[in-house]
TrEMBL record:
InterPro entries: Swd2/WDR82, WD40/YVTN_repeat-like_dom_sf, WD40_repeat_dom_sf, WD40_rpt. Keywords: Nucleus, Repeat, Transcription, Transcription regulation, Transcription termination, WD repeat. The keyword Nucleus applies. One of its GO terms (biological process) is negative regulation of DNA-templated transcription, elongation. GO terms for cellular component: Set1C/COMPASS complex. This is WD repeat-containing protein 82.
Amino acid sequence: MCGACCLGTSPSSSPTWRSIVQVGKKRPIRTLYSKKYGVDLIRYTHGDANTVVYSSNKLDDTIRYLSLTDNKYIRYFPGHTDRVVALSMSPVDDTFISGSLDMTIRLWDLRSPNCQGLTNPLGKPVCSYDPEGLIFAAGVDSEAIKLYDLRSFDKGPFASFETLFSRVCEWTGLKFSRDGKQILISTNGGAIRILDAFNGSVLHTFSGYNNSKGISLEACFTPDSDFVMIGSEDGRVHVWSTESGMKIAVLDGKHSGPINTLQFNPKYMTFASACSNMAFWLPCVGD
């Protein structure tokens, strides 16, 4: 989500198209097909709502840089030898990072097809930039957090935290809060966790939502970092306070299936949730 528009992929195990939906509108503005390569992770580029980078789920593991205005590829980023499972765009410039099942994390620049840096975290990675764009965090093999400085990326992590909770599911996503103080770990199990970004300690564990089938459910912070939200197998959205750790709401969006994607708008007080259909949410203002 870039603020005014939201991107969605086809509702299948092997998505082949992307739809651009304008906030407040019921129909897609445009549908773009990628039948040859398939579509998996999609990210808007920094400061440009007309271009995206995305990973494929067919043919190869090259990342592609696409213009949404004319549906033409601007650049290709080859290098990964297995499926890309993490993709994060810098909040301050034209660099991005990708994590793959080939057990590598790569640093890229939109202006060059060549990999700008590579590290081997020794496990399946999930990764994300911090809000300042100075460091990134990598979750490795669902058991450790490693912090890297972008200025010395190839030298390895400057800090590592081993998590002490038992591994009963896989980590499927990692995000920083907007204030940079917390890290949110999404999983394919029945619990998500918030960690202290400075020492790796567990601040809260959020559970009590349905995910019996082990689906990868995306969780997110609200822009003020005060709440965490996640969809569930039964089509509901669960909301917790990051301060108290208490669940404060369960929202029913009438979804027909599991909500595997949820994104809060970075500019407006709205968020989007999606299964095979997409729902836009607005605040309810009382008298």
